[in-house]
Amino acid sequence: MRAAINSSLAKTKVALIECPDYDEEIVSRALRQGIDLLGGITRFVRPGEKILLKPNILNGAAPEKCVTTHPSLLKAMGLLGQGNGARVSFGDSPGFGSAQTAAAKSGLAAVAAELGMEQADFNTPAQVSFKEALIAKQLILARGALETDGIISLAKMKTHGFMRITGAVKNQFGCVPGIRKGEYHVKMPRNEHFASMLVDINRYLKPRLYVLDGIMAMEGNGPGSGSPRKMKVLLLSSDPAALDAVFCKLIRLPAPFVPTMKAASESGLGTWADEEIEICGAELSHLVAADFKVIRQPSVPFDRAFPYYLKKWITARPFIDNSLCDNCGVCTEVCPLELKAIQHPADRKNPYPVFDYERCIRCYCCQELCPSGAIDIKRPLLSRIIHR
Q1: What are 290-326's pLDDT values in tens digits?
Q2: Where in the chain is the domain with CATH 3.30.70.20?
Q3: Does 3.30.70.20 match the CATH number of domain 304-386?
Q4: Which of 105, 108, 155, 187 has its CA 20 to 30 A from that of 310?
């Protein structure tokens, strides 16, 4: 494991910077302002170091879709790192398909080429041991995430069916190569176990700085098929839980609804307690979006609070809008189960995929990666009554 950047601050600082659009000069200025509030670039990047920038490249969506970290933020951070004498690369592993193709389609590869940044190897897996892990004593991570002196995480502000939000903590799941992600979903179908695994990845990799691109966020059916939402913010911190807690404040989502919060606090990764966080920069109350579309209910494991047979009546489930489905088969391909929970029936009268909800583990990989946005998450009536 690489060494983390130590902090002597009494409270965890989260920089909240207003940033109205993706103009390169405006983004660069906002990023510098946020980093200066946290102690300056020399706190996170040293001359001669190999620094990996870890954006969110869920798939090859165009920047205006708000699926991926915007190219202007990657460029601004790359220039800052290079300006401080670091050798900067970038990398992420999409949930489906080629990392190189996704980087090209999202506009990130072009920016990297302009700056002379190499794309790190996120295809080759490497197994590492982590004795201090909460749950994942053995981790499969991309070589590119391991062969570096330090990581700067460039996350995207989005909703997420399983974890409620995808922000600072969740972004490092992209350091798990390709289809290996599905193995974690199968091994850890319970949301609190999956959250602990995400925390373990962060504790092992120890990103030095977390930056959240919330200039244009994604609400609704995230993280791949939601709607763009102008939030006009950049968030920065060395504490991913604190950053995500401020993200929650901006969208009026109770932080305990996010499963990673408890695991992050218990493990020492970070804090979500108000009294331990100092928000610096912009005034939070001026940037709150109380009507932000996100699942506003606790992410409670069904088998902890209710008998197993009530699963289908309690847990949210994926469903298909046939009018949007183009029958591409990606949903079946990305289902992590060996015996798939979503199948294309042989009956030609119904050419669309069909779910087996008894088999479905509610990982929502199909919803997350559906290229046509045809899969959404539906809460059963009993769940809506309990959590209204």
Answers
A1: 999 999 887 655 445 555 556 666 678 899 999 999 9
A2: 304-386
A3: yes
A4: 187
